[in-house]
Write a structure and sequence with these properties.
Helices cover about 20% and strands about 35% of the residues. By secondary structure, it is an alpha+beta fold.
């Protein structure tokens, strides 16, 4: 994606020359375009994305907020935070022999990323098959990857019509913003470039008429008085001067200013990635995962809730007392499965067994979870972004679920 941003003019030639010089000194010249989004010294030294990077670019039809999420298994929590803020996805897979297979085999990151994206509400995806130049633009290799990945994505819940595949080379820029010109590729591929596929994606309807909700993903000291937060408005709208309630601390604050893409605004609506400056609040009452909400229609705060979950492939069966880490938006909270209510038919949702002793691979069930500290949640039917979550244990994602009942704290 770094090369795409450069070709779109979002990165200056001077900056690219600096990246190229410094990456060559470290012996990592092939990572030069990755440095556009991998900004920390550790990311550049290790050659992997560790945190979420955000950039904005424009196409002929869209204004796009790009969230570059980590792919390495050690940083899946950050990947969940980024994907939870996304409307659509571009998934990059390598075409070289062995690289795709290692990511696609059981337990590989390609599989986990696809399941996470779908479970977090992403319905449209462009699969970018990168490094095609390393396999001599082989149609057979492209078709083999599309065949394997397409069947899995359909099984995961993606519709064939909502998934597209683009062969490209990130290093030399082929088929990124203009259609392919290399003879070896155009003799069998005459489809759109990556940017053209991104242009085709449809933004979802924004719930602007619902109560205001904005989940905090970062906190920092802004200019002047007060404190600034970064996040995405999940639903509703707000403007300068509004009173908001900060949950779960249940403290009031006043919105001093709203900034979107480094531009001062007086308001923001659902779907906007914003920086909001707050006054009249103790910064210690704000944490990553706090929710700014409408004081008259506040977000629900609880420690115990009931949910419908789909179990993936846990190493051990899930039983009452099973420890989990709850992930949604930018929240990461330790919790415990306290009760297995029922096992459901995966297709119909009918109860097939009450109070099962355990849950194993590919089961669907109703269960209850207790968080170690109060968390901000909503019923999935009221707010999808605050009503769906992932469960992880021992570094693996074991289930995805939606909130069906919230118990009063």
């Amino acid at each position: 994606m770094g090369h795409l941003l450069y070709l779109l003019g979002e990165v200056t030639k001077k900056a690219m020359h600096k990246f190229r010089t410094e990456s060559e000194k470290l012996g990592k010249s092939s990572f030069v375009y990755a440095w556009v989004l991998d900004e920390t010294g550790e990311e550049r030294h290790r050659g992997i994305t560790m945190d979420i990077a955000s950039r904005r670019f424009e196409t002929s039809k869209r204004i796009v907020n790009l969230l570059d999420a980590p792919g390495h298994r050690d940083f899946i929590p950050n990947m969940i935070t980024g994907t939870a803020q996304a409307d659509v996805a571009v998934m990059v897979v390598g075409a070289t022999m062995g690289e795709f297979e290692s990511g696609f085999e059981s337990g590989g990151q390609t599989r986990e990323h696809a399941m996470l994206a779908r479970s977090l509400g992403v319905k449209q995806m462009v699969v970018t098959i990168n490094k095609m130049d390393m396999v001599n633009w082989s149609k057979e290799r492209f078709d083999a990857i599309v065949g394997k990945l397409g069947a899995f994505l359909k099984q995961t819940g993606f519709k064939d019509s909502d998934v597209s595949y683009v062969p490209c080379s990130g290093l030399n820029g082929e088929n990124l913003i203009t259609k392919a010109t290399i003879p070896e590729l155009i003799k069998w591929y005459n489809g759109p470039s990556l940017i053209e596929e991104i242009d085709k994606m449809e933004p979802p309807l924004r719930p602007v008429d619902k109560p205001f909700r904005c989940c905090v993903s970062d906190i920092f000291k802004g200019q002047g008085v007060g404190v600034s937060i970064a996040g995405r408005i999940e639903q509703g709208h707000t403007q300068n001067g509004n009173f908001v309630l900060v949950a779960p601390a249940m403290e009031f604050a006043i919105i001093k200013s709203v900034t979107i893409s480094n531009e001062d605004r007086t308001w923001g609506v659902a779907g906007d990635h914003v920086i909001i400056s707050l006054v009249n609040i103790d910064p210690n009452k704000l944490t990553i995962g706090s929710v700014l909400c409408d004081p008259e229609k506040p977000v629900k705060v609880c420690t115990r809730f009931r949910a419908r979950v789909i179990v993936f492939s846990p190493e051990y069966p899930i039983t009452p007392g099973f420890p989990v880490v709850l992930h949604y938006l930018s929240v990461e909270e330790v919790g415990t499965v306290t009760k297995l209510v029922s096992q459901l038919n995966k297709s119909t949702g009918e109860v097939i067994k009450k109070r099962p002793k355990c849950l194993t691979k590919q089961m669907t069930a109703i269960l209850e979870i207790e968080a170690s500290r109060p968390v901000c949640l909503e019923l999935y039917s009221d707010c999808r972004e605050l009503g769906r979550f992932m469960l992880r244990n021992s570094g693996s994602t074991i289930a995805a679920g939606v909130v069906t009942l919230i118990y009063a704290s």
